[in-house]
């Protein structure tokens, strides 16, 4: 059985889902690298990575917002495995980013106590 190629709005939805996956994935990776840099006593790079992560997560969130706006305007957004995967990536990226920031703060406080 052959697959039906995506058309019109379906292609746009898939493209937005892929944007979410790509940007959220980058934000996730940068957040984790920020922890590694902080542990390696490279606070400047740690801060830079967290800023990059925020930017990528924001881009992913903007793509998600476009999808929500499409649905709010009455366009049908059919749930797909790709869309679920994209939402999962974004949710986890946001969580990893927040936890990375907290871990870095905790690490800095512990380092201050050692001095």
Automatic annotation (TrEMBL):
Localization in the cell: Cytoplasm
Cross-referenced PROSITE patterns: PTS_EIIA_TYPE_3
Gene Ontology terms: cellular component: cytoplasm
GO molecular-function terms, A-Z: metal ion binding; transferase activity
Record has Cytoplasm as a keyword: yes
Domain of life of the organism encoding this protein: Bacteria
Residues with the Phosphohistidine modification: 85
Gene3D superfamilies according to UniProt: Phosphotransferase system, lactose/cellobiose-type IIA subunit
Single GO BP term: phosphoenolpyruvate-dependent sugar phosphotransferase system
Keywords: Cytoplasm, Magnesium, Metal-binding, Phosphoprotein, Phosphotransferase system, Sugar transport, Transferase, Transport
Matches recorded under InterPro entries: PTS_IIA_lac/cel, PTS_IIA_lac/cel_sf
Key word Transmembrane present: no
List of catalytic residues: 85 (tele-phosphohistidine intermediate)
Regions annotated as coiled coil: none
CC cofactor: Mg(2+)
The protein's assembly and partners: Homotrimer.
Protein name, per record: PTS system lactose-specific EIIA component
Native source organism of the sequence: Xylocopilactobacillus apicola
């Amino acid at each position: 059985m052959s697959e039906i190629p995506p058309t019109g709005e379906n292609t746009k939805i898939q493209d937005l889902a892929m944007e979410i996956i790509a940007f959220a994935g980058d934000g996730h990776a940068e957040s984790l690298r920020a922890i590694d840099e902080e542990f390696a006593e490279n606070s400047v790079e740690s801060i830079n990575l967290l800023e990059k992560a925020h930017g990528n997560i924001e881009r992913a969130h903007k793509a998600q917002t476009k999808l929500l706006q499409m649905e709010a305007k009455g366009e049908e957004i059919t749930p797909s495995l790709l869309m679920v995967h994209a939402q999962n990536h974004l949710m986890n990226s946001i969580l990893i980013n927040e936890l990375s920031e907290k871990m870095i703060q905790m690490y800095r406080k512990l380092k201050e106590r050692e001095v």
